[in-house]
Amino acid sequence: SPVALPPFFMRGSIIQLADGELKRVEDLKTEDFIQSAEISSELKIDSSTVERIDSGQTPNAVVIQFSVGELKAQVCVEVLVEYPFFVFGQGWSSCCPDRTTQLFELSCAKLCVGDVCVSLTLRSLR
Amino acid sequence: VPVFPWHSLVPFLAPTQSD
Predict the structure, then answer these.
(1) What is the ipTM for the molecules in this complex?
(2) Cross-chain residue pair A7–B2, CB shorter than 8 Å
(3) What is the percentage of chain A residues whose pLDDT exceeds 70?
(4) Minimum-distance CB partner of A86 among B10, B17, B18
(5) A36 and B8 in contact by Cβ < 8 A?
(6) Do A15 and B14 touch (CB under 8 A)?
(7) What is the pLDDT of residues A10-44, one digit of tens each?
(8) pLDDT tens for residues B1-19?
(9) Burial of A126 by CB count in 10 Å (0-12 exposed, 13-18 middle, 19+ buried)?
(10) Quick one: which of A76, A39, A80 has its CA closest to A59?
(11) Which listed site, A76, A113, A125, B1, has its alpha carbon 20 to 30 Å from A51?
(12) How many angstroms away from the CA of A73 is the closest CA of chain B?
């Protein structure tokens, strides 16, 4: 694959929360992201709803259109099909959960239109 | 063992400024 996979999605990766607590990536919960963002002076959690999922430029890529935050700003990102997003109340989800599990050993649900993902914005952005 | 910050796992989706 020409695109390097982020190492931190590999099962067993150690993640440091904003309060210093260490957790494995597969053990993260929605509250961990919410509480970490509450502590952060710069970052704010937004709810980003999946509006559309289309094919990307290459066969293993998808373009995901999100509706971000209270303003419902439309943001598109192109990612590999195995790229996991964290869905509120559900956990890691990707467009191709089988491939995510195969590559990262990370259990994943299928990312669907309507899912609400954890995303970040800068607190100073308005 | 590498330790990664929590925010590296979350996409940064900045809405385009419209004002």
Answers:
(1) 0.87
(2) yes
(3) 95
(4) B10
(5) no
(6) no
(7) 999 999 999 999 999 999 999 999 999 999 988 99
(8) 899 999 999 998 876 554 4
(9) exposed
(10) A80
(11) A125
(12) 5
